[in-house]
Amino acid sequence: MTAPADTVVAGPSSEGPAPAARTRGLRKTYGRTVAVDHVDLDVPEGAVLGMLGPNGSGKTTTIRMLLGLVRPTEGEVELLGHRMPDRAAEALPDVGALVEGPGFHPFLSGRENLLRLAAAEPRLTSARMAGAVDDALERVGLTRAGGRRYRGYSLGMKQRLGLAGALLVPRRLVVLDEPTNGLDPAGTREIRSVIADLHRDGVTVLVSSHLLAEVEATCTHVAVLNDGALVAQGELAELLESESPALEVSTPDTTTALETLRAAHLTARPAPDGVRVELTRATAPDVIAMLVGAGVPIHEATRSRTGLEDLFARLTQDSEESPTWTP
Fold first, then answer.
1. 3-class SS of residue 299
2. pTM over 0.70
3. Which of 35, 142, 225, 267 is the one with CA 20 to 30 A from 303?
4. Please, are residues 211 and 180 in contact by the beta-carbon 8 Å criterion?
5. Domain residues for 124?
6. In sequence order, what E strands does 170-323 have?
7. Which keywords fit this entry according to its UniProt record (predicted)?
8. What is the rounded CA–CA span in Å between residue 109 and residue 153?
9. How many structural domains comprise the chain?
10. Could you read off the pLDDT of 182-219 as tens digits, one per residue?
11. How far from chain centre, in Å, is Cα 50?
């Protein structure tokens, strides 16, 4: 599968620091089924990147190849500067991951399960294991439930315990596959807070999610997959801003505003408090100057952008209709 002929694709930038994770020509097939198709992904260091896509779009397969859990059919994978999966032993101690839901021993308590994970951490001494487990449980809000058997945990509690396992020691990169799955609103806010804390500490976070509102609230960058192909990646703000540049002008004189804008051959329509004008043929300062020159009173002017839900819907339509976007 390749990008449609009418798409515009710019290659990933070579400027700035090396990405925390990157792929080139990444492809994975299972028999005749193409799960991931020539993906060139960059996860900028220090970013919170949301990986989006419908079910079956290749998100989890891509993550598994990044972590060395699955060997690519074709292409290259680099994680924290190390080629994967050949140099996984060098890269993975700096990576915490929760992929496809946590798997723990059902008859052990949450704390006992984490102690088993802690024993496998190469950079965690025996003397520090208990403290690391207590800190991780507190960080995800499971201190009181740490002594309960895992089989009695709710789905949301299991997700939190999996996140605690990923955060037993300081990481450079944290990979989370649907981290808010099964969580109530309060639990979701807690996970959002944990991600914000990691971002403030300079940790790179890769989040796979189907909750677009959460991605928009927590992520600095986005990568969108559809049918195994990467159809968009880049800074979230720039991606949303680039889609439908428009200006919302608040004015009591809607009639004069519309007449002025349409006389200048600009696309404009009434809005709840005034007019909305598309910025395809003029800049925002041009529009404001034009309206002021026509005597239109302006109470407020704000730049409008596409919401992530609308953008996601457009990008994940049939690939023949969906453009590929890369800043």
1. coil
2. yes
3. 225
4. yes
5. 21-240
6. 173-177, 204-208, 221-226, 229-235, 246-250, 268-271, 274-278, 300-304
7. ATP-binding, Nucleotide-binding, Transport
8. 9
9. 2
10. 788 888 888 888 899 999 999 999 999 878 888 888 99
11. 0
